[in-house]
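Q: Given only this backbone (426 positions), what sequence would you predict?
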């Protein structure tokens, strides 16, 4: 029987926990930090210093740790756990640089001939403007460091791009994270999220997902952390997945191993797919070193092989002896967001729930708090309604039916999650 600690307590971690709780070999689940959602599924572990975290993990006889958000990796907490002899499903800080620094990532993948957008990285405004002049709009500007998903700007107007570059490079826009920028050529196409489970030497891909990053229907409005996702994405056929594996993931993981930074955990490739001479070609947009959110919420209910068993195979570097299996179904998650998301924090609102038919799927708690015994919407992305079905259409219908069972003032959600695939099968 296993005791598992999940670092993080949002929707992604809630979804991981729902999956783990179905495993008869999982005894206790612990989470940190506190959140009213995950508090329903396990115990909360509070700590002030990394040393205190390590001591609590040892005292509670926690068998291993699953890392949710990238901050634990980039801040080096996972390295400290490794050093203390604690098993962690998540990469080292060095391997995590693929997400921690966009400039490092672009340099790294370019050295290994991974297809990606043409770019420069610079701290110099003059150099930035010279490169910008070589591009046609829209202009893609990225802050080098972590910016909680807000560090990418896509701008149509040259002068606006220059103005933003000035603000980034001076530290005004994103602090130190933006003092180095990556400027990229804009790639047209459709996006996929592809996840590889890696044990440092071998890897296996999970079914492709499609996220919807823009706030509004028809992919309008600002970028968000993701307003909904579904999996599997039929637009990723076997031939395309082979290209993603062979041209993008394998050279990256082999390169990391060669440079002494083997990657253990989840590598998440944000892919732009372009059609060239009738062939689909993948380009790497970004790497994340953890599960995506909301992608995790659609992968976890479809995952047949226990995640616990996957983690154990990764710790033993025996991933190649495990066949990771998925149920032959579809899942769709629709994010229900609070009134002012993603612009500013919203006023907490009480959430009311009606009973729902559990064969439709389930509701994931993300940005919620409990106040006087009642659940309040306190975060930006508050709930995810996860529909499960025999196909993507059924999953979608079920997800939207689930939304009818929740209400809070100001709630909003996209009505068109999955529109690309649904339009294609109409
Ligand atoms: P990133 O965090 O690098 O994935 O960027 C966030 C989002 O910006 C991506 O999901 C894309 O929608 C968009 N994006 C980033 N880079 C590019 C690019 N070179 N061309 C087109 N869109 C991009
Ligand atoms: N869904 C995108 C992310 O997790 O970064």
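A: Predicted residues:
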């Amino acid at each position: 029987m296993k005791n598992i600690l999940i670092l993080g307590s949002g929707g992604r971690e809630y979804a991981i926990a729902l999956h783990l709780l179905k495993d008869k070999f999982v005894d206790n689940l612990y989470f940190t930090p506190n959140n009213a959602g995950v508090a329903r599924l396990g115990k909360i572990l509070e700590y002030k210093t990394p040393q205190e975290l390590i001591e609590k993990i040892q005292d509670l006889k926690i068998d291993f740790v699953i890392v949710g958000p990238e901050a634990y990796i980039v801040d080096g907490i996972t390295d400290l756990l490794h050093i203390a002899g604690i098993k962690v499903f998540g990469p080292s800080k060095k391997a995590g640089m693929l997400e921690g620094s966009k400039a490092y990532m672009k340099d790294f993948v370019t050295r290994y001939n991974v297809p990606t957008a043409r770019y420069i990285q610079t701290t110099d405004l003059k150099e930035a403007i010279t490169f910008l002049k070589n591009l046609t709009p829209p202009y893609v500007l990225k802050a080098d460091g972590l910016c909680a998903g807000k560090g990418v700007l896509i701008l149509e107007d040259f002068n606006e791009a220059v103005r933003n570059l000035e603000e980034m490079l001076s530290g005004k826009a994103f602090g130190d994270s933006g003092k180095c920028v990556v400027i990229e050529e804009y790639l047209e196409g459709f996006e996929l999220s592809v996840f590889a489970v890696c044990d440092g030497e071998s890897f296996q891909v999970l079914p492709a997902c499609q996220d919807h990053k823009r706030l509004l229907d028809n992919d309008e409005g600002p970028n968000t952390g993701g307003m909904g996702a579904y999996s599997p994405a039929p637009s990723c056929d076997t031939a395309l997945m082979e290209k993603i594996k062979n041209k993008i993931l394998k050279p990256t993981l082999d390169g990391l191993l060669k440079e002494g930074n083997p990657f253990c955990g989840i590598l998440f490739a944000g892919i732009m797919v372009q059609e060239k001479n009738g062939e689909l070609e993948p380009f790497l947009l970004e790497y994340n070193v953890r599960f995506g959110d909301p992608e995790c919420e659609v992968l976890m209910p479809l995952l047949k092989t226990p995640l616990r068993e996957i983690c154990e195979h990764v710790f033993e570097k025996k991933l190649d002896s495990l066949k990771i299996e998925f149920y032959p179904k579809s899942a769709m998650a629709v994010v229900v967001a609070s009134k002012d998301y993603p612009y500013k924090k919203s006023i907490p609102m009480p959430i009311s729930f009606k009973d729902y038919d559990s064969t439709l799927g389930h509701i994931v708690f993300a940005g919620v708090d409990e106040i006087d015994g009642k659940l309040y919407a306190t975060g930006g992305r508050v709930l995810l309604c996860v529909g499960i079905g025999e196909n993507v259409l059924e999953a979608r219908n079920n997800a939207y039916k689930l939304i009818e069972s929740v209400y809070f003032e100001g709630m909003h959600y996209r009505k068109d999650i999955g529109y690309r695939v649904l339009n294609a099968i109409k």
